[in-house]
Design brief:
about 350 residues, 9-stranded mixed sheet, about 30% strand, elongated
């Protein structure tokens, strides 16, 4: 499943080449194939929109007449505007260089980490990998196309398996399916660990619970817009498809591709009783080597639910690859070494919640 979600067809599950929409459609078809039903009784998709700055086409940079590789040698910051220029660079300090006429900023970085921005600024910022930069950058040739999308349309993908005894008591399993998409016509960010891994785990759990209905309803929400600022989960809590008070617990899955050093549980200190249960389950079966406790944090889609009083954990794995928000977060490098154990831990924990 991770291989599929990180394939060029989905183009980083982002903002160009229809990547995010293709991913949403794929997830909806998986839900339907497993036998889940839409939460809204109309569609698996909960549509919403937001503004975003995109990079659909030209993405070429030369430094000192050396052609650089997008994603590996350089990235543009997500709020960069279009530019077409051949220019000299002025050194401002040891890592920053500018051309004021074309409003170009060049910086030298130890790691290239990309993101998402809602709009373009009035400059173009290009980050160079220090190892690729070589000599001090004196000249630049840049041909970069950015395109503002004022109303980017996307959707959360929502389904559930109704409970057999207490259908109004709901356990939610969530994971964002979006990633960063593409930077130019030939470069995309696969997003294997972030968050094809969590989406794959969510789909595996959806298939399991469809075949094994529980006393409580098990809802599955795959959020869009997480990388743009937790926008999908924010939209959901503002427009809930069922009463939020019915949620007995929410488990948010993000960065689930490693695990040799255990997992971290965000909100562990907020919900100590449930954290104690999770540890007891793990200690009994020896699923994971360690469960680390963390407090409240606005670092994934659980956050808005917690703000509304919904008890929730965000689980993410530790160890393994260090790729994050870069072109190296690929399926073939992702160990998935604790995928099955984490799956079993979640099922066992949910069993305790339903007692």
């Amino acid at each position: 499943m991770v291989d599929t979600l990180t394939s060029p067809n989905f183009w980083g599950r982002g903002y160009t080449n229809n990547g995010m929409a293709k991913a949403a459609d794929f997830i909806a078809k998986q839900f339907a194939g497993f036998g889940l039903v839409p939460i809204s009784n109309q569609s698996f998709l909960q549509a919403f929109s937001y503004p975003v700055n995109t990079f659909p086409g030209r993405m070429a940079v030369m430094i000192n007449n050396k052609k650089l590789v997008p994603g590996k040698d350089f990235i543009v910051t997500p709020d960069s505007r279009s530019v077409h220029a051949t220019a000299k660079l002025e050194q401002k300090d040891s890592t920053h260089f500018i051309n004021p006429n074309y409003r170009i900023i060049v910086s030298l970085e130890n790691k290239l980490t990309w993101s998402v921005a809602p709009a373009a600024a009035d400059y173009t910022s290009i980050q160079l990998d220090k190892k690729a930069a070589g000599d001090i950058p004196f000249t630049i040739q840049a041909d970069i196309e950015s395109q503002q999308v004022a109303d980017f349309k996307t959707a959360n993908v929502c389904a559930w398996v109704k409970g057999t005894r207490q259908p109004d008591s709901i356990i939610v399993i969530s994971a964002h399916y979006d990633h960063l998409g593409g930077m130019g016509a030939n470069t995309y960010f696969p997003g294997a660990n972030d968050n094809a891994s969590g989406t794959s785990l969510l789909l595996g759990l959806a298939k399991y619970y469809s075949a094994n209905p529980q006393p409580f309803t098990i809802a599955f929400i795959s959020f869009a817009g997480e990388e743009a600022g937790l926008l999908g989960s924010k939209y959901f809590i503002q427009h809930p498809l069922f009463p939020l008070k019915n949620i007995r617990f929410l488990l948010n899955l993000d960065l689930e591709g490693t695990g040799d050093e255990g997992i971290t549980v965000v909100n562990a200190t907020e919900f100590p009783k449930q954290f104690s249960v999770l540890n007891a389950v793990n200690d009994s079966a020896h699923y994971l080597t360690k469960i680390k406790a963390l407090g409240k944090a606005a670092n994934s889609d659980h956050y808005w639910f917690t703000e509304k009083g919904v008890p929730a954990f965000f689980l993410y794995t530790l160890g393994g690859i260090k790729a994050y928000h870069d072109v190296f977060d690929k399926a073939e490098t992702l160990p998935l070494n604790e995928y099955e154990d984490l799956f079993k831990l979640i099922v066992a924990f949910n069993n305790h919640l339903m007692k």
